[in-house]
Amino acid sequence: MMEMPSRILMKRRQLPVKGVLAAILTATILTGSTGALIAFAGDDLRVGMAETDITPPIGFPIAGYFHERLATGTTDPLKAKAIVFRGNGQQAALVVCDVTGVSADLAVEIRKLAEKRTGIPAASIAVSASHSHTGPDYYRTLHNYLQGDKSNEMRAGYITRLIDGAATAIEKASEAAAPVTLLTGKGTQETPVAFNRRFVMRDGSIRTWMNYSNPDVVRAAGPIDPEIGMVLVKDDKGRPKGLLSNFALHLDTVGGMQWSADYPYFIEQAVRSSLGPDCISLFGTGCCGDINHSNPHATERNKTDFIGGSLGTTIQQSLTTLKPVSSSALQVRQSVVHLPLQQASKEAVLESVRIMKAVAAGEKVDFFDHVTAHKTLLIDRMRNSPQYAGPNDPGSLLFTHQLAAVGENLPVEINVITVGKELAIVCLPGEVFVDLGLAIKRGSPFDTTLVVELSNSVETCYIPTRAAYVGGGYEVTNSTVQPGSGELMVEEALRLLKDAALAGQTASKP
Q1: SS3 482
Q2: CB within 8 A of 99, min separation 6: which ones?
Q3: Which of 20, 226, 12 is nearest to 115 (CA)?
């Protein structure tokens, strides 16, 4: 494969990206690394937090696996939770929704509506997913909705509510923005709840979801990240208003057929027991593409309440160690990086069509062949024009309107929000391997760096390290981008962080 440049910023003429997404990306280009298009004046830091309920109705498809399941009830509510920053003539928002992933289509709709209501530039809004596998499988319904098909009133009605709910959370957080004190820091999760789920086998391959009871398992193929990043927001009277926390662990611990926010629900209970019943607990999922809750040394998996309760206890114990951010200087930066898409030949696409039709007919199909078929059909939609699948495309898990026929490279956004020299929040697309998140944290010049995955685009699917592609495994099979894509994102994130740090130093000089 041809070596890609270390930094590939989008040129407007290169991408036939549609409508609002094109406008967002154009705004990003115009602002470069100096921040969003400014619609707010003022130097004092103001922060607001808010949440809304986005629990779907019973009978809506529930996400997480490769077949349709219809929800039968609610274990705990799904929410959209937002934090808005204003100051230094800039403003930005992060909203996390209890869904498995945020497609580019969904991100565009939410950002468009939130910008209209708040004036926060769409390019300065990160729309992220908690990655709950007991959240809504909205992708096909959203695609139909955007094509004008609203024949299923229940499903189409939920799409309207999902978009409005996330935008309303941003709107309420914007309205609540007020002078605050920020405290930030890190806790270390000592009780084991997160495990690298990829393993080196004796034949040199990498396999996912193994256990040490298998004599062919040599070792885990990567690390975990035990750090819990935290940002505590207090009002001008010292009262806690909200806590943003960040930890790298897949949200697939519940199972079943009922709506649930997974283990962050129990983190919320712990936060509110310590900081008050109205305190908002906003959880941003860390880089956990290769991390889950299955202990390879044990026969039973940890339960959701144990995981969330243990993380909540660590957060509670770490609150007294958080330190105030010394400067209120806010920096907002965005960049667009081109990730090279994998190939989808005509032969591979037509074979994928055959496999998907076999699945629909109830035939037994190898799991990895099924995953490959889904991935290949998605690449066909994004890369090929016209699609090789043609009008008989049976569809995969992900549908895309905004990214249809973008060509050889997938444009993805990186958002960076920093305050003073202590705090940085980095938002990345896709399901990112933990090593990539750790690389950003190690290279960040800020004391505490939270790296939030699954932001603004899930069409990458998994984003492994370059080395991980050699060994293979489920995550490599379920990736649409080529090796080196993750490293491109790391380089650009670190460039944005460095620019923010340098700008902060310049601003602080008399």
Answers
A1: coil
A2: 63, 78, 106, 129, 130, 131, 132, 135, 136, 138, 162
A3: 20
Can you tell me which residue has the tokens 């995981």? 307
- Per-residue pLDDT reduced to its tens digit, 123-176: 999 999 999 999 999 999 999 999 999 999 999 999 999 999 999 999 999 999
Verify that 173 and 27 share a domain, yes or no.
yes
Residue from 266, 241, 240, 243 nearest 254 by CA: 266
Is residue 215 included in any domain, yes or no?
yes
CB contact set of 263 (below 8 Å; sequence gap of 6+): 249, 251, 253, 304, 305, 307, 308, 311
Q: Which domain holds residue 361?
A: 342-407
Q: Does one domain contain both 424 and 400?
A: no
Residue in the structure block whose two tokens are 């405290």: 183
Name every residue whose Cβ is closer than 8 Å to that of residue 207 and which is 6 or more positions away in sequence. Answer: 198, 199, 201, 473
Please give the Cα distance from 411 to 25 (Å, whole number): 9
Q: Summarize pLDDT for 175-208 with one digit per residue, the tens.
A: 999 999 999 999 999 999 999 999 999 999 999 9
* pTM for the model: 0.93
Instruction: Name the domain count of the chain.
Output: 2
Closest CA to 473 of 130, 100, 214, 203: 203
